[in-house]
Write a structure and sequence with these properties.
By secondary structure, this protein is mostly helical. The chain contains 3 helices and 4 strands, in the order ββββααα. α1 crosses α3 and α2 packs antiparallel against α3.
């Protein structure tokens, strides 16, 4: 049996320590109810953060596509690339390269107008758009 220093004695063969988050709900005038839930692992926290970022990026894509695309032509902003002798897919790659260069510059100095996170989000979205475009066109326009 072990006293954790708080007067609560725990008994049992404990092999590993698990961190828990404690939530206390005031049930006045009823007794206080304590709910103990396992704390998410670093890996679970990481995946949760990535999911939140991906969801936010998709919402940003929806907003930006309303400005750049049309309901019938979601790639409208990229479809002008052939006017200068570049395929639509390669035009998307050029925009991705612009974002990579921007990120590289921001690693060396602070941003004045666009954060490094903004550029990472844009790069991620361009990759999603390119992947979707290639899938929809069966790579014919690459």
């Amino acid at each position: 049996m072990t006293d954790g220093g708080d007067g609560i004695v725990l008994a049992g063969p404990w092999e590993a320590r698990v961190d828990y988050e404690t939530a206390i709900f005031d049930a006045t005038p009823e007794p206080t109810v304590v709910v103990i839930t396992p704390k998410p692992s670093p890996s679970q926290q990481f995946l949760t953060r990535l999911q939140a970022r991906a969801d936010a990026n998709v919402q940003m894509l929806v907003r930006k596509n309303a400005d750049y695309g049309t309901p019938d032509r979601p790639y409208a902003n990229f479809e002008v690339a052939p006017l200068i002798g570049v395929s639509v897919a390669r035009g998307m790659l050029v925009r991705m390269m612009d974002k990579l260069q921007r990120i590289s510059n921001l690693l060396d100095r602070p941003a004045l107008n666009e954060s490094i996170q903004d550029s990472c989000n844009d790069l991620s979205n361009y990759a999603l758009i390119l992947g979707d475009f290639l899938e929809q066109s069966d790579g014919k326009s690459a």
